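Figure 6 in text form: structure in, sequence out.
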């Protein structure tokens, strides 16, 4: 068993939306769930009658047996939990704030407390709230795809929290998570593990394998919702990173088309033309041409030429276009000798964007790890120390 206890580094200040979500979930449990769990149900409630019917209660003896163990909270869960066979917009939201018990609540809030603050800092408060709710809805609907006829209510914040974990997985891959590893009786110890290892274990071992071999809700755990939320978080994080760059690339392509129409002939989309433009220091036109090249054509370009173009875009403070180029470079050239320089420049470029300091931290870490040049490695470590100092002062 892997139990996360904390993560590092953490953003400065307080994540107000994340804290508010934790407080709201706890308040609902203490003020609603807990009192109703020790109260008898309202025998005149139509929801109770529908719930009893869904349970298959048909005889007076069955009714007496079920009512002797039934609480008012179970009837409330049936009313406000999400039932795939009877979906509603209201229950899509209310189900996110109900929990099946104290352990269910505690586990969810622990994950939200550890991982939510970084994601909120990256997105900003209002966007974080929207992403949290969207991931919760996506997780619930994904679960419903596999149990469309079920009238068993789905409750819990774990689908929305899994979406937060999906964002964290993509954005903070080099963070370290303090984890209690419990493999009784062989190994019981707290370790600092890479974030992607911990979250990958959560996704694959805790959810994907049970989902594939035992079903969407094996053991009373909505594995399907966890997987759906995680996928939604990954998709949102990827779109947040890439859509601004995509818009900028379309701008460059539009400029290239306009130039071609004015000249009645388009510049040939090949590496040689791009290199010629770079040698002439016509960087704007080189950028327009670069974003028209295929992956195969980009592979033939010298790494130094690509980094020179990225450097120009950085100087122009065109962060989205620069990051788009650098992310392609990193993905397409994983063993290139200039990869540390690409990571370093990506970190510097992320600092041009709002609330991307901790994403920049990840790139600086990669540059420091991979750099063979002592000077570059020291520059990366200095950048890391500066970010850590700013974080401690609360000025990041």
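Output sequence:
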């Amino acid at each position: 068993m892997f139990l996360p206890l904390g993560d590092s580094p953490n953003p400065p200040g307080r994540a107000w939306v994340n804290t508010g979500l934790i407080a709201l979930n706890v308040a609902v449990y203490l003020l609603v769930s807990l009192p109703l769990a020790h109260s008898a149900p309202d025998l005149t409630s139509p929801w109770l009658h529908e719930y009893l019917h869904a349970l298959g209660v048909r005889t007076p003896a069955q009714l007496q047996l079920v009512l002797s163990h039934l609480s008012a909270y179970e009837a409330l869960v049936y009313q406000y939990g999400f039932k795939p066979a009877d979906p509603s917009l209201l229950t899509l939201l209310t189900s996110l704030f109900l929990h099946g018990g104290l352990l269910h609540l505690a586990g969810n809030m622990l994950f939200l407390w550890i991982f939510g603050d970084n994601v909120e800092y990256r997105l900003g408060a209002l966007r974080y709230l929207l992403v949290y709710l969207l991931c919760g809805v996506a997780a619930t609907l994904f679960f419903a795809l596999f149990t469309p006829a079920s009238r068993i209510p789905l409750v819990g914040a774990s689908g929305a929290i899994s979406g937060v974990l999906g964002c964290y997985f993509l954005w903070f891959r080099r963070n370290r998570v303090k984890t209690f590893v419990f493999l009784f009786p062989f190994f019981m110890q707290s370790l600092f593990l890479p974030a992607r290892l911990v979250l990958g274990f959560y996704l694959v071992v805790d959810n994907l394998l049970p989902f594939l071999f035992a079903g969407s809700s094996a053991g009373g755990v909505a594995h399907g919702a966890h997987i759906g939320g995680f996928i939604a978080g990954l998709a949102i994080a990827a779109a947040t990173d890439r859509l601004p760059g995509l818009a900028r690339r379309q701008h460059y392509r539009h400029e290239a088309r306009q130039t071609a129409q004015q000249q009645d002939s388009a510049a040939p989309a090949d590496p040689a033309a791009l290199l010629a433009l770079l040698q002439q220091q016509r960087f704007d036109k080189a950028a327009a041409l670069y974003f028209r090249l295929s992956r195969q054509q980009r592979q033939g370009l010298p790494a130094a030429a690509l980094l020179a173009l990225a450097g120009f875009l950085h100087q122009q403070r065109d962060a989205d276009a620069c990051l788009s180029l650098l992310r392609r470079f990193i993905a397409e050239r994983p063993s290139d000798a200039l990869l540390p320089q690409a990571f370093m420049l990506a970190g510097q470029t992320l600092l041009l964007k709002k609330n991307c300091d901790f994403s920049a931290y990840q790139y600086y870490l990669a540059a420091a790890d991979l750099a063979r040049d002592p000077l570059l490695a020291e520059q990366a470590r200095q950048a890391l120390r500066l970010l850590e100092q700013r974080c401690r002062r609360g000025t990041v």
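Caption detail: The chain is about 70% helix and 5% strand.
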